[in-house]
Amino acid sequence: MHLNLTETQQRFQSAAQAFAAESLADAAAGFEAAERVPPEIYRALGERGLMAVNVPAEVGGSEAGVVSYSLAMMAIAKACASTAVTMAVTNMVGEVVAAFGTDEQKQAVCPMLAAGAHGAFALSEADAGSDPGGMRTTATLENGEWVLEGTKQWISHGDTAAFLVVWARTDGAGPRGLSCFLVPGDAPGLSVASHEDKMGLRASHTVSLAFENLRLPESALLGPRGGGFRIAMMALDGGRIGIASQSIGIGEAAYAEALEVVRDAQGAQGLAFRLADMRTRLDAARLLALRAAQLKEAGTPFSQEASIAKAFATESAWTVCNEAVDILGDAGLVRGGAAERALRDVRVTRIYEGTSEVQRIVISRGALRG
Fold it and tell me: Which of 252, 257, 315, 353 is catalytic?
């Protein structure tokens, strides 16, 4: 693994760090109070190439690679985890469309997402979270149109997405019966069923969606019919690098606040040792995330490494945030502080894009295969 960053990687890291410092760090608490991130934030991210970092340039992306994306995600998440969620999912949707879409689909969707519009990833359902094979949403081909019926749950910014990648059952039971569709956010028959009142990431909307007689042209099929499960698994593998990176950024925010307390305590040994453990966890997580990113960027298998990175990074970040609040004492429990918000924001990283338990299944299977 090469630890020296390329010029491109340094440039994207610096761009993300500068934007985070200038536009997010001081505004994040206000975003949370308002329960929204202003659209101009995402347009500004798009102008800096951060909404489609690993998407090919020929369809409007930055084509800067997965390592650049990971580094940028860490920087944005450190300042505002809610902003990072939308950035992460939109990057993932852009990659999916670029990889599996037709030329027409790519040209219609990817430049828009790169410019700052939101892309949503509509896979989860009430009875099909960690197991997409249990999906109940259906897509039936009728007179040259696909008709979607069903519901989706836990969809990040599903209420503001310009385009959604939606999974539905087309061909019988099990994972092989799933297909993938590209759905405009304003499609008739698509509605927001509810908004979740969440513990953390409160400036990032999470909604349930309903599909009622939603009609799409045959050309809305993304990838081959029956190929939806493969597309989902490939997307989630890459998405796990993004969430590992997000959790590291959140952990860094909590660590930074705890660091100031320990400095004020003039390096009290008990606190300093705890700080040392926090720093070690974050550095180890960063290396694991960048290893997985580098493997993906090189076009080599990375599924197991992505799961290792996600499991370790998200659980380590949770520990770091919890330790930071403990070090801060009573002040760590008051709304408005970075560590308090980080503790609430980081918890879900152990759940979405595959729970820690799912990651252990992937890791152990890879280990047993040798």
Answer: 353
